[in-house]
Amino acid sequence: MAKEYEIDLNVNSNIGGSISELKKLKRQLKDTEVGTEAFKNLYNQIDDLEDKIKSAKNTSSDWVDS
């Protein structure tokens, strides 16, 4: 018979942003001239943040499945 345990868990994350930060960056990107260095930097930040959020969702799904 399986035993049931209740634990208190604190999780530290290295995700440097959130969905609200992603939306803010996308708004800034719309106001930035295409082809400039600022545009490229914002685009890369958005790409990195989307990857981190996707990875966090996959990790949390793995925890739920466990």
Topology readout:
Elements: H1 19-30, H2 37-65
Which properties best describe this structure?
66 residues, 62% helix, rod-shaped, mainly alpha
Write up this protein.
The chain is mainly alpha-helical. 62% of the residues lie in helices and 0% in strands. The protein is rod-shaped. The two termini are 18 Å apart. The model has no long low-confidence stretch (mean pLDDT 82).
Question: How would you sum up this structure in a few lines?
Answer:
With 66 residues, this protein is mainly alpha-helical. The protein has two helices and no strands. The mean pLDDT is 82.
- The beta-strand count equals 0
Radius of gyration (Å) = 18 Å
Amount of helix? 55-70%
Kindly report the average pLDDT value: 82
Characterize the main sheet. none
Listing every helix as H and every strand as E from the N terminus to the C terminus, the arrangement reads HH
Looking at the chains present, what oligomeric state does this protein adopt?
Answer: single chain
Number of helices: 2
Helix/strand class: mainly alpha
Low-confidence stretches: none
| Distance linking N and C termini | 18 Å
Q: What spatial form do the alpha-carbon principal axes imply?
A: rod-shaped
Percent in strands: under 5%
